[in-house]
Design goal:
By secondary structure, this protein is an alpha+beta fold. Helices cover about 45% and strands about 20% of the residues. The longest helix has 15 residues, at about 190-205.
């Protein structure tokens, strides 16, 4: 079954998009047969998914672009600024990855040039898989580029677990290979870049949490840019209550708080309805303290066992003696990645990695 993003985005690559791409091709390279591109594009387009449509565009371009590497890449550079919407430029990057991998350095340079128009994060991955050292040499240079889109490409393209793409097993196995790249971006002024670095590090925590913790411990976390990356990079470990991760962001494992109230309502609900989680905490400490408050739902699985999913409630600083009331409403509905089953669903309140209490709701299907 197609994912929600796929259903929403597949129509970006509709016939009108292919027609605009044909116009971009005519302007960039009048000698190329834009009519033949469009004729091929119409064939079998409708049932294709998002990624299939993107690939279909790349294949149709392959049928009409020049045979020479330099000539073909020059046409793509000229087409890029005329492509609308910008998301459609992913097809140009896909063409490069599939048909110009042999022109390694020239192709990597073209991906660098195109990334500001949309993103080349998917296009660079076959190059990283084919020759990681050669590709990473390009990306280390990109990390110092004045364009934040290019700097982000260095981090995002080399993520070991980038969504909608294959895993880069070589980099996933040995994060030392990307360590210098991430270090080079740790104090980037662009939030766009810092988000990518944080997501990259969070990917690495799935297999090498100690590596991430050790590296972040060497960063100047008194710098607000580094601290922001660290907090978001450690989000998975923080939700697990990892003491070292909490310590790195200045959070004590044992919070000095008293639970005033915790409620999950309604007690019984049906699929598609909302569950409301509320909690009131009071500080019992003598100093202001950072709190990471989460709630976790034990979802009933098909076989009757349960799977825990942690959600962020709020992160904040609580003054001595102060009280805070927290609330979150969540719709209980099916996703392509999560199906619900009838039964009792325990809900836990977690403060600084420690479960303080639990309640529950019963789901009726």
């Amino acid at each position: 079954m197609a994912s929600d993003p796929d259903r929403a985005l597949k129509h970006i690559f509709d016939l009108a998009c292919f027609e605009r791409t044909a116009d971009a091709l005519r302007h960039a390279a009048p000698a190329c047969d834009a009519d033949a591109f469009l004729s091929q594009a119409r064939d079998g387009l409708e049932p294709l998914s998002l990624m299939q449509r993107m690939r279909h565009m790349a294949d149709c371009l392959h049928g009409v672009l020049p045979a020479g590497d330099t000539e073909a890449l020059d046409v793509l550079r000229a087409m890029g600024p005329r492509m609308t919407p910008a998301f459609a430029t992913l097809a140009l990057c896909d063409y490069i990855a599939r048909y110009r991998l042999h022109a390694f350095d020239a192709s990597m340079q073209t991906l660098r040039d195109l990334t500001a128009l949309g993103t080349a994060e998917y296009g660079v991955r076959p190059f990283l898989r084919a020759d990681p050292d050669r590709a990473l040499a390009h990306m280390m240079r990109w990390a110092g580029d004045p364009d934040p889109h290019v700097r982000r490409l260095a981090s995002e393209g080399s993520r070991p677990r980038l969504p909608w793409s294959f895993h880069l097993e070589t980099l996933a196995t040995d994060p030392d290979r990307v360590g210098p790249l991430l270090d080079a971006l740790k104090q980037d002024d662009s939030l766009y870049v810092r988000k990518s670095v944080a997501n990259h590090l969070n990917d690495i925590t799935k297999r090498h949490p100690e590596w991430v913790l050790a590296r972040l411990a060497r960063w100047p976390l008194d710098d607000a840019r580094c601290a922001w990356i660290a907090r978001h990079a450690l989000r998975t470990l923080i939700k697990r209550g990892d003491a070292r991760a909490l310590a790195l962001i200045g959070v004590a494992r044992d919070a000095a708080v008293r639970l005033v109230a915790f409620d999950v309502a309604p007690a019984t609900l049906r699929l598609g309805e909302r569950v409301n989680v509320t909690a009131t905490l009071e500080s019992t400490g003598t100093h202001a303290q950072k709190l990471e408050v989460d709630y976790a739902i034990e979802y009933v699985k098909r076989d009757g066992t349960r799977r825990l999913k942690v959600f962020k409630l709020r992160a904040f600083t609580l003054a001595p003696g102060a009280q805070v009331m927290l609330a979150r409403t969540q719709v209980v509905r099916d996703f392509t990645t999560r199906r619900h089953y009838a039964g009792r669903h325990p809900v836990h309140l977690i403060v600084n990695g420690t479960t303080l209490c639990q309640a529950f709701f019963d789901l009726e299907i």
